[in-house]
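Folds vary. Our protein:
___
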Amino acid sequence: MRTSHNTIWSFDKLMSRYFKLISTFWNCFAATKRINSSFALGLSRAMIFEGLLNLYSNTLKNPFSGLDYYLIALKNEDKNSIIGIFSSWVDFAKEDNNKEVRRIDLVIPEDVKKDLILLEKYPLIVNNKEELTSFLKFGGYALVDKKLIQSHLNEIATPIVCSSSIDKGFVQYETLPLKNKNRFAKDKFRAEIIDRDNYQCRVCGSSPDDSVHVRLEVHHIKPWEEGGLTLKENLITLCNACHLDAENFDRRELYKKIGIRSYYQNSTFFAPLEKYTSKQFQKAIYLASNIVEIMVENKYR
C-alpha cells in the first residue's frame, strides 16, 4: 500500500466508493429507525476508517507548515509496533559506558523528503493532530511537526538509552527482551544458535561428531563487556579451541559467517540494502545509522 502514490490513490478511490454506497443505505435505515445496533457500531467504525484513510492519502500532498520537523517511521504488527526515530548522540549512559543516550533530532524536511523518495519511501507531511492520528493508524514514514510531538507524543522526545546492533543500528535498551540482555544464552536459545550453525564450529568446521574432544560453545562477536547484546545476530558457534583464540579473529569476518555482510542490513525501515543503487545505498545507510528502533505495545492503533 505504501509502495507508490498510484497504489494509494487507487485503493483510496475504491474504499471511498464502497463507503459512500454504505452511507446511502445507512441514511435510509436511520430514517426509518430500524437499524440494528451492532450493524450501526460496525458501520461507524468503517466510516472512521474511511475518514482516516482519506486523511492519510491527502497528507502525502501536504506542504510544510514550518521548518522544525522530526523524521519518524512506524511499522504496526499484530501485538507490537516498532517506532523508528531519527536521532543524535547526547552522552554515554551513566550506568554503562557501552550504551548511548540519544534524542530525537530535527531534520531538514525538504532534503529528507527527497532522500526518502529516492529510496521509494513516500513520507507523510504531518501538520496537525488528525493527520498524526492517521499516521499512527496506518504507519509508514512521516515528517512530523515538532510542536505535535511535544504536545501529543512527548514520550519519544525524551532521551533514550540505546544499545547498538550491527544489523539494525540502535535499539532502545529498555524494550529488549530479558534474554537479549543476559550475558549467557539460555539452553534453548543456545541450542537454536548451534542448530542455525549446522552443529559445527563456524571457523574451523569441527563438530563433536568428528571427535569427543570437540565441544561447541556460543560466542558473542561483539563482546558482552563492550555492550554486545545476546542476539542471534551477535552470536556464533565456535569449538572450544577456536573460542580460546576468539579475540584474535576479525569480527567482520565472523559476522559474514552468520550472514551479516553489511551494517544495518536488517534495519526495520531501510532493508534490504542490497536492492539499492550506490546513490540510494549511501542515503539509506545515513538514515539507518541514526535511527533508534523502539518497540511499543499497539496502544496507538
Remarks:
- Residues 221 and 251 are 6 Å apart (CA to CA).
- The chain has three domains: 5-59, 69-168+266-297, 180-257.
- The chain has ten helices and eleven strands.
- The mean pLDDT is 84.
